[in-house]
């Protein structure tokens, strides 16, 4: 079977094109713009920047051109841009989105030519760009085609100059079929240093060695390419058996408010793991274990566990890890349900690990939560 005949080949190509363009936008926002006046605080107290809005406008415009009937579940909406406070951000968002959509054609397999470009450029008025952002307001659900978009996952990492990801997934009947993730600050070669937000240390990082894109289609494997070269290399998780589990390394959030560092530390202890956990913002954690830099991604709820994870925070990362040989479930070992709406309301927490050890990790998670008196989460 050639690539163009493979299931979801068109969705795959368009998703890569959209993520490349949005990643170019976010990189240029960071290089040129980011200052306090380029971001707002949302009603849930989380930050949102020119980059988040701009990337959502770019991805949604491209999806609207190529799949006009497909609904999109996207993180952002344009309401904050329509206020007096949001006016200057709105102007920047529109200028950047226009530049990104008009920019030189990105290297993207199966798509070229003026026709595609011209179609995309027709939608560049302010009104149309804001409407494109708001195409992301779909409620989700278990039936039919839809896209899930996090235009910048890990906005706090983005603002720090650390890790963030542009994450786009295609979902059919609640099952993720295509996942594409742009990680502009992740080193192409895992051996190279990655920016972490520490200004002094990050000054030593060679920027020409950063910028990866991950692509997975269900049943077709997981691949890494770079932002500038379309050559794809297959990736897979490090093999890990029960007897080698103590040599594993964990990935976890930088933010202790997003996932419980204390519980993770106890789980590592229960599994005999001595390696220090690697802290990183965003779904870059999924990419990192999918290509074998680390082995286990744990995201355990903080406090009473009332936070509902969002589908756009996990859809592309989950497929990447599954296609690289891993298993991704909630803390009870149940599959994540992407068909329950905008959130993973049927699930609590996330546990991603190689198939061969996932069961043991789940057992340790149960034990640690019981010890903490949080057995009600199980
Ligand atoms: N209270 C919370 N618990 C868990 N995740 C959260 C919480 N608040 C925001 N997030 C989301 O967690 C993700 C980042 O987590 P991580 O710590 O792994 O980088 C982001 O998607 C962030 O949204 P956002 O997309 O706005 O950055
Ligand atoms: Mg956000
Ligand atoms: Mg996110
Ligand atoms: Mg986001």
UniProtKB/TrEMBL annotation:
InterPro entries: DPNP, Inositol_monoP_metal-BS, Inositol_monoP_superfamily, Inositol_monophosphatase-like, Inositol_monophosphatase_CS. It catalyses: adenosine 3',5'-bisphosphate + H2O = AMP + phosphate; adenosine 2',5'-bisphosphate + H2O = AMP + phosphate; 3'-phosphoadenylyl sulfate + H2O = adenosine 5'-phosphosulfate + phosphate. Mg(2+) binds at residues 75, 150, 152-153, 313. It holds the Pfam family Inositol_P. SUPFAM superfamilies: Carbohydrate phosphatase. Its cofactor is Mg(2+). Its EC number is 3.1.3.7. GO terms for biological process: phosphatidylinositol phosphate biosynthetic process; sulfate assimilation. It is an enzyme of class 3 (hydrolase). Keywords: Hydrolase, Magnesium, Metal-binding. GO terms for molecular function: 3'(2'),5'-bisphosphate nucleotidase activity; metal ion binding. Belongs to the inositol monophosphatase superfamily. This is 3'(2'),5'-bisphosphate nucleotidase.
